[in-house]
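A further point concerns the way the authors explain their paired sequence and structure data. The central task, working out the structure tokens from the amino acid sequence alone, is never made concrete. I therefore recommend that a typical entry be quoted early in the introduction. An entry of this sort, consisting of the sequence and the corresponding backbone structure tokens, reads as follows:
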Amino acid sequence: MKRIDQGMKKILCLLLALSLLLAALPVAALAEDGWDDWEEWDLWEPSDTQTEEETEEEEIEFPDELRVGHPTVMKGDFFTEMFGNDTADIDVRALIHGYNLVNWDQEQGTYVIDTSVVARVVVNDDAAGNRTYFMALHEDLYYSDGTPITAWDYAFSLLLMMSPEIEQIGGKIYRAEHILGYNEYITGQTFALGGVEVLDTYQLAITLDHEFLPYFFEIGLLLCCPYPIHVIAPGCKVYDDGYGVYIGNEDRSNPEPVYTAELLRRTILDPETGYNSHPSVVCGPYVMTSYDGVTACFEKNPYFKGTMDGVIPTIERISFTVADNDTLIQQLADGELHLVNKVVYGPTILDGMQNGPSKGLRFSPYPRIGLAFLTFTFDWPTVHEEKVRQAIAWCMDRDALTKAYCSDFGLRVDGYYGIEQWEYLLINGQLDYPIDNDPNNPLPDEEVERLTEQWEALNLDNLTVYTVDTDRANQLLDEAGWTLNRAGEAYRPGEDDVRCKVIDGELIALNLSMMYPAGNHIAEYMQEYMIDNLNACGILLTLVPTEMEELLLTYYREKPRTTDMIYLATNYHVVVDPAITYSCDSTPNHLIWNNTYSDDEELYQRAVDMRKTPPGALYDYVVKWISFQERYNEVLPCIPIYSNIYYDFYTEYLQNYYITAHVTWSQAILESYFGLAPETSPWDDWDEEELGEDEMLFDD
């Protein structure tokens, strides 16, 4: 029998309640259902009152452009995450960049070699244990300007992303510690990156350093998209003289290096033409034709050969813009938008569910792989101490805040996870335990029982559930020495407004500030569910509404921090490696990825231990994952708040849009088209036995 904890019970009850709500709506409202396995089913059927004329596709004028809205504004970092990682920007990257060496397989839940890019692969281990992937590329890959894509392009991408010139122009260089020779190359000890070799025009070799292995998501270490050197670094060329790859002058008679920070600042960061915000030559399914800071427009890339599954988009043009939670349902109904992705705000979801179907709208719910949280400016004296962060957590009514903001579509979380994360689903019994029981050579029943009991014993019961407890918060603050008032005398509860403490000879007050996205409805609930409780404990908190671009620059430390905390949310990469996020490595190109500047060595080591699990050792990995969650829950570099069920709303004329089968809308849309719903429903061929169990977002 699988265990279902209280959190999972709440999710299941939530889904049941929603299904009952849908049952109470008109039949047309049942646009998307399939709660049992989070699948999306198209239940649209022509009304009996429709005439044949009305159902003739040629009589309906379908849109010639798909207009997509997102609650998060784009920041314009469409190149890589080196300059930021806003969720809307990530979606754009999926539209315009393609031909990655590896691809995330949604069904297998792991990375695989992308066979549309790599024709053949051979893996070889040397005597030291270094592992080399020899890859032969297909010879029919092209950029959108018709330039062939070769092994040299992949080598350039890797060299570009880890080059010190990127760091000089404000980017976060790629931490490729897994590639053999990375440390020597990045520190200037060698002129070439020995772990990457171009063997021929269409043959590439990447060697993984044995000291970094094992790595649980090993194939994911080969992630690499090609970027055009003739656009980003004109006058430069990648060479391989037998010692690895490096970037040099195309004209080798020129003694002055062409590849400089000044060159990249112009080609990448120019606000009008730079590749970061205006990528002109790409290799994904779409090409960006314009971007004005709010709306980006795209057209099909005529040179795109298709995805690994052979999918080529049919929608000719797309526009992508920000959508306001308060008006997006009406915008969809009016045809100003055709699709809105990742809606979180509860009242908007309820409006769409209740009123959308009568306006010709459908919707798809799917659980989130990330969470919303409060991140601390960890190195500030106000919030550096663990007991202060814990006291703040004891003052936050996360259940009530989640209910107020997400309605019944969110669930409080107590660690660094989302409700769709496979580790969380496994330990809550929502996924079958991965017991390798080959039907041709079955395990003894007692062994299956032993392994099942082993999995069932895993849980998150040791995580502290920080509910509202101002007595506990006051006790922690007393223990931490925050026992003075503004005059440096003993703090008097009920009389003094704020607690203070002498740190390095300076009287510091717990007069805190929290940055949040301007216009976000979460601010409407902070006073009742957090600020009043903080005040009762001698902590003051000022909310600082900040425009999204400014907030993102601050979070990523591209601008100095000005507040003690930031409210935000994240969608994890499919591969979550907190050893990067919470790195204690003090070298500049490592520490810059630690956006909280957490300095807890034990948290970092538990994260490293987790990633060094051998591929396939699922049980060992989940055990280490739980250990990391327990330390995270204690140290609180961030206060986790909620994970939620997303909703996508879209016009009834958008067909074949299956967001649950993809990571993001910009992947799901490749299979979509405008038209009438099929005459037959997926339910017609549905077999009951088939029903299974199943990177930076700022909400609102």
